[in-house]
Design goal:
With 171 residues, the protein is an alpha+beta fold. It has a single domain, classed as Aminopeptidase (3-Layer(aba) Sandwich), CATH 3.40.630. Helix content is 25%, strand content 33%. It is globular, with a radius of gyration of 15 Å.
């Protein structure tokens, strides 16, 4: 398996992966809106035998605290073709994406995802509770890419318009 940054030639394959993984086009449409808005920090694909089988996207996110803005990103979405799920592909994409975000100056990443999956990468609902956002609960998590950057800080997160209308809280 090859992990690499998405290239323009991958767009249709990325769209297909997101559509098949989620069983609808909403996430594929989100990827396109975020790209078009110029918000991409890192977009990675997993390739097997020349075929894109997974995709993960990290985009800039506005985060403000009493001590000033924080360089933040959102992990959304992550998709793996249904027949390739549960084989460690997502578990390879997440840390590589976080590493690229760190290299590109991001210090905090947030995700709305499975509360039993993302903590293995350092994501914490406890850290995210310090942030006012359209999401809350155990599925809204954050990870510090610069240890201690959120120590003693609380604030708010504003998702870009490309995310569309977000719910006030997860179900």
């Amino acid at each position: 398996m090859l992990l690499r940054e998405e290239q323009a030639a991958d767009r249709e394959a990325v769209r297909l992966v997101n559509t098949l993984a989620f069983g609808r086009a909403s996430e594929a449409d989100l990827v396109e809106r975020l790209r078009d808005a110029g918000l991409v920090v890192a977009s990675l694909v997993a390739e097997e035998e020349g075929r894109v089988v997974a995709h993960i996207l990290f985009t800039r996110l506005e985060m403000e605290t009493a001590r000033g803005p924080v360089a933040a990103a959102s992990l959304a979405p992550m998709a793996v073709l249904p027949e390739r799920q549960r084989r460690g592909i997502g578990s390879a994409l997440v840390p590589r994406g976080l590493e690229l975000c760190r290299e590109r100056g991001v210090v905090v990443v947030v995700v709305v995802g499975h509360p039993t999956y993302y903590p293995r990468f350092g994501f914490s609902a406890e850290l995210a509770r310090r942030l006012r956002a359209p999401f809350s609960g155990e599925s809204f998590m954050a990870v510090e890419l610069e240890p201690g950057v959120m120590a003693g800080r609380s604030g708010w997160v504003r998702y870009p318009d490309a995310f569309g209308a977000l719910p006030a809280q997860l179900p």
